[in-house]
């Protein structure tokens, strides 16, 4: 699974308003001919990214190249069950990538259109957001 090698701060504050507006960076295809674009805001965990990657890779078998355009760098914390209020912030349990509408999540190239569409649909099924398939002009 994806996670940062080293972080400056172990625990982040929650960002208020992190889902406002549309994405301004990473909205166009940069590497492949096919892509999966986010249509709604969400936090996508490293487990969800890995499940999507596996689904795509297994479907295209040995052909094609896949690029992951998001990286989970924001830590998420959680307190253990049955712990009283107070006593500080919980321990980090994983990392998420904050995604806004318009962001390209995955790109693919080197396979026929039908295979790319099916592989990206399988990847989209593993994600908690609505997505759209896009093609190079």
Topology (SSEs and partners):
Layout: E1 34-38, E2 42-45, H1 46-60, E3 65-68, E4 74-78, E5 91-99, E6 104-109, H2 113-125, E7 131-135
Antiparallel strand pairs: 1-6, 1-7, 2-5, 3-6, 4-5
Helix pairs in contact: 1-2
Descriptive overview:
This protein is an alpha+beta fold. It has a domain at 34-77 and 96-135: Ribosomal protein L16/L10 (Aldehyde Oxidoreductase, domain 3, Alpha-Beta Complex). The chain is 20% helix and 28% strand. The protein has helices at residues 46-60, 113-125; strands at residues 34-38, 42-45, 65-68, 74-78, 91-99, 104-109, 131-135. Strands 3-6-1-7 form a four-stranded antiparallel sheet, with helices on one face. It is elongated and about 55 Å long.
Poorly predicted ranges (pLDDT <50, ≥5 residues)? none
Mean pLDDT: 93
Identify the CATH class of the domain at 34-77 and 96-135: Alpha Beta
Oligomeric state of this protein: single chain
Cα separation of the termini: 32 Å
Roughly what fraction of the amino acids lie in strands? Answer: 25-35%
Look at the helices and sheets and give the structural class.
alpha+beta
Radius of gyration: 17 Å
Helix content range of the residues, please? 10-25%
Order of strands across the main sheet = 3-6-1-7
Number of helices: 2
Main β-sheet description: 4 strands, antiparallel
Number of DSSP strand runs: 7
